[in-house]
Write a structure and sequence with these properties.
Strand content: under 5%
Radius of gyration: 26 Å
Helix content: 55-70%
Shape: globular
Largest sheet: 5 strands, mixed
Order of helices and strands: HHHHHHHHHHHHHHHHHHHHHHEHEHEHEE
Number of strands: 5
Length: about 550
Amino acid sequence: MTAGVREQPRDAGRPRPVARLGPAGWLTALVLLAGVGYRLWLLAHATPPTNSDEATMGLAALHIARGEGFPVWFYGQQYMGTLEAYLAAPVFALAGGPSLVGLRLPTLALYAVFLLLAWRLTLRLTGDRWFGLLVVALLALGSDRIVKNQLIAGGGYPEMNAAGVALAVLAVDLATGRPGRRLARWAAWGFLAGLMLWVDPLVLPYVVATGAVLVGFCRRELRGAAGALLGAAAVLGAAPLLLHSLLNGRNPLHAVLAASGANATAGWADRLHGGLLLGPPLGTGFCDPGRCATWQLWWALALPLLLALGAVSAWRALRSPASAHSAGTAESAGATGSARAAESGVSARVAAAVRLALVLAAVATVGAYTVSSSAGLTPVESSRYLSCLLISLPALLWPVWTVARDGLRQVADGRRGMRTTLARSVAVVLLVATVGTAAHATWRAAQTAPATRAAEARHAELVGTLRQLGVRHVRAGYWTCNRLTFASAERVVCAVVDDDLRPGFDRYPAYRRQVDEAAAPAWVAPDGSPLADVLDERRRAGNLDLVTIDGWRIYLPR
């Protein structure tokens, strides 16, 4: 990544995508609309199912919309920024109140941004519109775990992929030396990097990797105004974290490590099983809801191969003599503002460097997850920590795509050989299996929508029944409380209890104070739960009256 190399003519570098859309472009637009439309349909069916953690973010958004509070962190902890709450607050204010749809509209918009930027990044790195169509098609699909990461406003996940791809696109433009608004691009990269440090550090491997590309190609520019602006913008993006840490003398890194399982113990066999076998197919969208069938685990075996091929391919392209003299370094074009940099497209060397950065970031993500205890203790649910792997999809599949594409061209030209045919066949099978497995997982996720919608209707009936009964204060389990409070727009306030009726974990302590001060709080429990069994014993002792609705039990004090 040496600075100051000269530009080469356009036809000597990577093919530049033409301006017109063409068949691949129109198909890509249709697939993009289909991906957003599929998630709109899920949103209309209250799918994926919400929970009290998402409701906690919704309550933060409600408080922001009312001007009652401006939280820095997810209620009840000292990490994971509340960006989603600040995005949803204007929606609540315009809609006149909170709702699950209003809470998820910003996350849907973030997904659309992610899809558009992923398409742009793919074209910038490869110049192949048909490959761009493949990448968009894969990202348009959505297994149960994928749509949970993209739509549930539970903190961090919907915005990380959009920000990570944006950082990569900005790195390509800056390293290429694309003229015009360069200082604005430097500021945008720094602000996004700082913002993600506040929101969720899971995307840090991509911040570091794309930052290394900028250092490699733009060292001279970074010594001047660009570096100062980047640093100031990064501080601005991370300002909530920095100010809170300074004012309270707390280190959010400790809380992040605790959340990843650093305070728990898991054996290495469980960590390797969760991190390398279950995690990759679950976290990247190849599994059925809540489980991974044996045949779907093939992606766990393919991922190391794709990582190795992606790294070797990118490294060879980076070190090849042709790319050593390719166009687009910021040292020559960025500093001089040469118009030639804008016309030359992305140099082969910059594209290779960014692809290598994406592969290395994916390796770091998988490695960090595997060594954490979460991979061994809760491998199914914590596979969400691998959601950023989708950012690396263009770099992972590009070598396979080129083998399949070039092999097909050689067959068409009559230059068929045994090795060529075998490599092409393996590449085609791998691509077809990738699309087919992801499509199957998407179909299985869509099948859960009617049941989820029915469960949401039962919960709405619970809220309505409590209102009719005049109940304002209740005690319930953790996964009931904040969801109930959010769904009722705080007209029903809930305090958490465990299955033995002892005080539980209240993320927003004000609710417990209100319930404790109430004269006769009610109790709410899901039908058939351990909490319901304990409360039934109290009812038989003559202390409670019971009101039942489908799926729920309401216990009223006598």
